[in-house]
Amino acid sequence: MDKLYRIVIIDDDEYSADNLCLELKKYNRLSVVGIARNGFNGKKLLDKVRPDLLFLDVELLDMKGMELLDQIKGSMTWNMQIVFYTAYDKYMIHAIREAAFDYLLKPVDGKELEGIISRFMKKVTEEISASFVIPPRVYADGEHTFMISTPTNDLRILRTIDIGYFRYNSERKLWEVILNNTTPLLLKKNTTADHIKGYDSCFVQIHQSYIINVNYLMMIKENRCVMFPPFENVTELQVSKKYKKEYRTSFIFCESLIYHFIIT
Questions:
Q1: What pLDDT band is residue 42 in, cutting at 50, 70 and 90?
Q2: Whole-model pTM?
Q3: What's the rounded Cα separation, in Å, for the pair 176 and 158?
Q4: Same-domain status, 191 and 105
Q5: Whose CB has fewer CB within 10 Å in the chain, the N or C terminal residue?
Q6: What CA–CA distance (Å, rounded) separates 23 from 227?
Q7: How far apart are CA 209 and CA 238, in angstroms?
Q8: 72, 96, 130 - which closes a domain
Q9: Which of 130, 145, 173 is the last residue of a domain?
Q10: What does the buried/exposed string (b/e) look like for 129-155 if buried means 16 or more CB atoms within 10 Å of the residue's CB?
Q11: Among residues of the chain, what percentage have pLDDT more than 90?
C-alpha cells in the first residue's frame, strides 16, 4: 500500500482553510490530519502529529507565520515541507529566503495547488530513494555496520561499536553522530530519528535530541545516562519523560543491560 502523507493547515481564516482542505481531498495519497486557527495551537498540533506537509498562513491572529517557523525550527526533528499560504504576494521573497518549499496565494487556484502537490510527491520520492540504507551486516562477534550519507552526499560506513550516541544539532538543523575516535559527523538533512533507530536495535531514543547506543550505557542516575568509556565524561544525555516508556521497554528485553538498569 502506498504511503499516506499527512498534512496540517494553520490558518485563522476558517473559509480559506476549509476550502484548501476540500481541494486537498482530491488527492488520494494526502490526508489533512489537523487544522489550527492560530500559531499557539498550530505549534502544539505540529509537535503532536508531525506532518509531512504544512500549509502555513503568513498572517495569523497571534503571530506571524515567519515567527512560528522560527520557533519550530529548533525542535523539528522530522522531515516536513512548508508551503506559505496567504492573500498577499509581498511575502513571497521572504518566504523563499526562509526556505519554504513553495508559496500558495489565496484564493486557492486548483492548477497552482496541483503543481505544488506534484513537486511535493516528486521530492518525497527522491528522498526515499536517497535514504536507502544497506541492511546491517552481522559479523561473527555481533558487530554491525551500516551506511549513512552526509550533507555533502558523501557515503560513510559506520560500525555500531564506534558510536556513542546521536545528537540533534539545533544550529545546523541536522542530526549528528558522536563517534569514539573522531569529531562529530553530520548526517544528511532528511535523516530522522526513526531512520537512526532503524540502523540497529541498540540505538534507543531517550530525548527529542538524543539517541544513545545502549551498549555503552552503564546506568541511569537521576535521569542522566552514565556511559562506559570512552564516553564516560559525557554529561548531556538526559532522559526525558516522553521517552521513558521506550527506554524501559528496550532495556527490559536487553539481557546484557539488566544489571546496569539503575534509576534513582
A1: very high
A2: 0.52
A3: 13
A4: no
A5: N
A6: 52
A7: 10
A8: 130
A9: 130
A10: eeeeeeeeeeeeeeebbbebbeeeeee
A11: 38
CATH number where 26 lies: 3.40.50.2300
How far apart CA 210 and CA 165 sit, in angstroms, is 7
3-state SS assignment for residue 23: helix
Q: 80: which 3 cell numbers?
A: 516536513
> What's the number of CA atoms in the CB half-sphere (13 Å) around residue 117?
20
Overall domain count for the chain: 2
230 close to 180: Cβ distance less than 8 angstroms: yes
Cα separation, 17 vs 23, in Å, equals 10
Tell me the pLDDT tens digit for each residue of 134-172: 344 444 444 677 878 888 777 787 888 889 999 999 888
Terminal CA-CA length for the chain: 45
Bridge-based pairing state of the strands 53-57 and 224-227: unpaired
Asked if 75 and 99 sit in the same domain, the reply is yes
Query: Are 218 and 155 members of one domain?
Result: yes
Return all residues near 20 (Cβ < 8 A) that are at least 6 apart: 9, 11, 55, 85, 108, 113
10 and 89 both lie in a single domain: yes
Q: Judge if 150 and 126 occupy the same domain.
A: no
Cα Dmax for the chain? 62
Q: Which domain holds residue 111?
A: 5-130
